[in-house]
Here is the input.
Amino acid sequence: MQRVRVAEREGWRAIAHEHGFSFHSPEGEPYWDESAYYRFTLKEIEDDLEAPAEELEKLCFAVVERAVADEEVLKRLAIPEPFWDHIAESWRRQDRNLYGRLDFSYGGGGPAKLLEYNADTPTTLYESAVFQWTWLEQAMEQGLIPAGCDQFNSIHERLVHALGRFGIFGTLHLACAGDSAEDRGTVEYIEDCARQAGVDTKFLFMEDIGVDRDGHFTDLDDRLIATLFKLYPWEWIMAEVFGRQVPASGTRFIEPPWKAVLSNKGALALLWEMFEGHPNLLPTYFAEDARAAELGDAYVRKPLLSREGRNIAIVDHGHTTSGLATANDGPYGAEGYVVQALHPLPSFDGNYPMLGCWLVASEAAGLGIREDRTLITTDKARFIPHVILE
Amino acid sequence: MKRSKSIALVMMGAGSLLLTACEEPTVEARVYDGIGQCLDDPAMDAAACEENFRAAQQQHAAVAPKYNDQAACEADFGADQCEPAPYRTEGGGSVFMPLMMGYMMGSMMGRSSVAAQPLYRSADDPKAYRTADNRNVGAATGKTTVARSAAASPAAKPYTVSRGGFGASARTLGAASG
Here is the structure.
């Protein structure tokens, strides 16, 4: 694995615009960054990322299996009681899941370590699946990178295939919150994939969802929402006014309710508890667990529920932090924390890449890399493309 | 059939989609603009007219399409063609539905595959009668034939009693994804 500097494609911003990639530079800050790329060998991809991702997904299934059979576990995950049965039923019914992203710390050599699993509302999907792919093709065409490069990226075709196999009757509704251009872009992309799979679609904002007299969810035309793809975290849904309507609504959700178990960072502690010593896992404990002390004075504290690196604190008394962020402001943490052994992201010229390994329908499908200048990957991270080249 | 038998569409540049129309089986039915027209039909007896009319009327409020404002209803069904439904939203708001413009029944009592039901007329095609499920049953009254799918019992239509119960977390916490 190497970080290679490279010339940008001329006019890539116009290309982004053409391809519907509107959030490449939010608030003027570059998000898509093609001034460099990461180069992997096929063996690194297949042995160190692809195979572990699929194996970890199976271990995660064992975690869900255990959670739905043990209310104590659901309680530790701070999942509200009215949803326990609903989550368990969705698992027993084998509700299909569409996608997820496993975030790894990996620098080539040594096993990739799972930092967290964005199982419910992962983004960077479009740029991983489409824009990164386009970059590869054009960069080869323009001679910016060697001919014969490949990429770990069958995300797009797998999404279309998976959506076609969901067995969606009638219209697929898709929703996200009204105020995020990035979320809107991701949902638009899923909608595009669904249409390519022959599924009729309709978008609305989460805020516009209604309920009818019988507790069914409705869209703005008062049509029933039979299937809803929601880029909106389960823990938010469960906490909000309409959340209590969910179990009896009859609406089928993508991602399914059982993903609430895995998008919770407590799942990392459960994974370690059940599969201690697995090469791709880091020692992780619930903060109140006595064993948490075994991590000594070098660990990362993460709220059970948080995103974009918020409220994550790196505690490392052995080192001076030399300007790296050690704590991020954010509103999360009320539900509790896990502590995870410190396994810093590798540094490439002062950049810290986080490797997001995509799963589509639980199969490893591709890679998207976000790079930050701090050890905690935040919403200021930049997306860097990658290639496979021997 | 006056429409194309098949249409090829190219969707999102991702391949072609072939739509093939199919001829549906039909059934015999009777369509009337109201109870009076039925009673005037020498082929019908008064008891059948009344019983089916009552059945259609009773379903009207449940099966008619619902709207949360009158303008939206009138946009689909025409000016003064809507009435308040006997429902309220949780916030006390009105619910609107189109006026019942006729009814449909089978030819004979008890042995028909046609469910007695209310009929409506939309603003964009005011001559034709439509079922509550928006199936066209044509402009003719009296004895007629309709597609078998149009003869089925119409589904109850939802109406939204409240909105906005999602979104609070996004307002407090920002982006939903990570």
